[in-house]
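We both want to read discrete structure tokens more fluently, so let's practise on a single case. Would you write everything just below, so we can both look at the same thing?
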Amino acid sequence: MVNQPYLKLVTENFQSIKKLADRAMEQLNIDELTYTPNEESNSIAVLVRHMSGNLKSRFSDFLTSDGEKPDRNRDGEFAGTYESKHQLIEAWNSGWEVLFKTLSGLKEEDLNKTVLIRNEPHSVMEAIQRQIVHQSSHSGQIVYLAKMIKDKEWTTLSIPRGKSEKFNQQMNEQFK
């Protein structure tokens, strides 16, 4: 685990973002994961392919090569599907593994180094923050699509409606 406060915090942020999407996808089968609401929307499977491809591109050789790798086919990330849920989850986890491995190898002195994304310079901190926003945005899309697909069968990932007061009381008791 990362000891530096910032790197520890961002690692925990990324873990939370991933866990939220994981919990949403757990509720779906492969047909639901590949469902597209309309022509202009992406399925969860497409979002998974894109997010994983983005993580691999940005965080492979993070400090030494441009974050937009020449072998990345970004447009291809928005096409195709997976044959099984297992295959989708493997692809999903492979991108996150690259990110977490890279974060665990960073040192505090790396934070002010400059990395490139599409030839545009970013401090390491800026590049990480950019990725937090990207992953968070798409994870929110995954949760929203999953909730829409499951409708009344949806298992909430946070405080259920109408239960905030009870939750707050429990939290107050816990931290007294």
About this structure: The chain is about 55% helix and 5% strand. Helices lie at 5-26, 30-33, 44-59, 85-105, 124-150, 164-174. The first strand starts at residue 114 and ends at 117.
